[in-house]
Amino acid sequence: MVALSPANARRSALLLFLGLAYALGPFTVDPFAPAFPKIGETFAASTALLQYSLAGVTLGMGLGTLLAGPFSDSIGRKRPMLVAIALYGIGAFGSSLAPDIWWFIGARAIMALGASGAAVLAAAIIRDLATGDAMLKLLARVMLIQGAAPVFGPILGSQLIQVISWRSLFQIFGVLAVVTLLLGALSFKETLSTDDRRGSAFQGMGKRFGYVLRDRSYQGLLVVSLVTTVQVYAYLNIFPFLALGKFGVSQNVYGLLAASVSLAWLISFQFGAFVAPRIGYVRTLVGSLSVGVLAGIGGLTIGASASSLPLVMVLIYMSIFAFGVSMGPVQTLSLAPHGEEAGTAAALMGTLNYLVTTLLAPVYTMLPTNSFSGLGGVYLVAWGLGLASVLLIVRPALARARTAL
Asked: What is the DSSP-derived secondary structure letter of residue 72?
């Protein structure tokens, strides 16, 4: 057995820690979707009210990204990261103790607050360590670890909910937060030097946001990131009811289907990280978003009347391909010009994503849960806007930036 050198051991521990920090996001949603029916029974809550609990999640994620990024640009990454992970744990244990649906929604928001803060900080840490193709490569390695969360989360949740209560399920993820917190406290070293910090967390925050927003390519990438988040939450709101209700699959089958979608995302992310440096980041985005548009067209035509679960899954896989392939290039291009404001840039993108998703919560509740047409419509609008943004904003802006060099 070959022993790791101290440097390799530290790097492996850092990759594991960053992967777990990113994983808290999907671990806020994926394992608990199979428990929605039992949670609804406990609180005598309607389907619409349960869907609104996801609005609490998106609101918490928006606040987490807004606060964590600027704070980390001002005081460093480590302390905000540990606080974020601790908040996730508090929210998880608080959810397990909820006496009513409103307490539950509030605790879930705290959970999301911590999860989103940890994800923003992980992105900023990766930008501290690398840029360009090297950043995308590092991000892909971290995502191999993070990818276990959305892949195994639904399977784990669907299996555990059959043998334990949903309250115990939340307690398990509270314990995971404690383990991650200890790993971070022991292995993670600060990556933002004192000289690169941006002063007070709140003083000048507006100027930092303004500086990032003046980047024309960032504006276009912000649209792509936004529509990506919108279509993901449409899927999370509709698919459990579509699969368990319309198609009548069992909890076990639902867990496998949801895990397969997450696995498709992970493979697509790695594919995008491999392809983008070779054919170009913009070409990669155009190709992947075009596949998403095709998924939307299919959803509004053959998918609207389809009673075939395999056909529905093909359309979902197409959209998740667009999501996975585009995610790495979007993050790399958006953070590359903003090293000293990496936390702010990541925070602004995440905050707007979750704010808009929260505002769209009433729309999600109006989408049909017995047909794919609603989800197909979201796919078409979201990916169509994303593709237009890349072609009309991102590509021209990057071309002008290259010409100016």
From this structure: H
Contact 282, 390 (CB under 8 A): yes
* Whether the Cβ atoms of residue 382 and residue 226 lie closer than 8 Å to each other: no
163 in a structural domain: yes
* Number of domains the chain contains: 1
Alpha helices in 242-308 (DSSP H): 251-279, 281-300
Q: pLDDT tens digits, residue range 360-370?
A: 877 887 888 77
Q: Which CATH number is 341's domain given?
A: 1.20.1250.20
The amino acid at residue 294 is: L
- At 161 the three-state DSSP class reads coil
Instruction: In whole angstroms, give the CA distance from residue 39 to residue 353.
Output: 27
Cα-based distances in Å from 405 to 296, 401, 402: 39, 7, 5
Name residue, tokens 């997450």. 262
The helix/strand count (H/E) of the chain reads as 17, 0
Residue 205 domain flag: no
Per-residue model confidence as pLDDT tens digits over 209-247: 777 778 899 999 999 999 998 998 889 888 888 888 888
Q: Is 207 contained in some domain?
A: no
Cα(252)–Cα(268) distance, rounded to whole angstroms? 24
Residue 2 lies in a domain: no
Task: Indicate yes or no: pTM above 0.90.
Answer: no
Structural domain including 396 reads 11-187+213-404
